[in-house]
Amino acid sequence: SEVDLLVFGIILNCTLCGVGWKKFDGNCYFVSKLSRTWAESRLDCISRGADLVVINSREEQVFLNGLLGRSKDVWIGLSDHIKEGTWVWVDGTPLTTEFWQNEQPNNLGNQDCVEIQTKSSRLGTWNDVSCSLQQPWICEK
């Protein structure tokens, strides 16, 4: 049985994501039901052995848009709070693949953190907002 296999440390080419997590392309994703600031959201992900999501491809963005549907807007692991205009992922990698909404990012009133806005049906759903806004988030491990 699967339990016996786990006792001996054997996992057959699969990642066990855990309850409440969704698997895509070898990674696991968790969408919170609570609302927190960007920093608090990141701490929650870290406490789960993960971090805020880093989006590396069009396929991953499409998966996340489908996963979220028309739910609340959610935090992702992208910010420019260290240096204005220099967008960096939580894992330290620079921004290369972008899915900004039209006319975003606009830094309207010190907006240093990025959300996926779920009301958009287009691929480009990113928006920069104030990091102190409280909303759900996506963890990735």
Automatic annotation (TrEMBL):
List the PANTHER family hit by this protein, alphabetically: MANNOSE, PHOSPHOLIPASE, LECTIN RECEPTOR RELATED
Q: What UniProt keywords apply to this chain's record, in alphabetical order? A: Disulfide bond, Lectin, Signal
Q: Which organism is it from?
A: Hippocampus comes
The UniProt record lists the keyword Isomerase: no
SMART domains reported in the protein's UniProt record = CLECT (SM00034)
* Record protein name field: CD209 antigen-like
Record-level Gene Ontology MF annotations? carbohydrate binding
Against Gene3D superfamilies, the record matches this protein to: Mannose-Binding Protein A, subunit A
InterPro entries given in the database record: C-type_lectin-like, C-type_lectin-like/link_sf, C-type_lectin/snaclec_domain, C-type_lectin_CS, CD209-like_CTLD, CTDL_fold
Signal peptide positions (record): 1-17
Record-annotated C-type lectin domain positions: 24-140
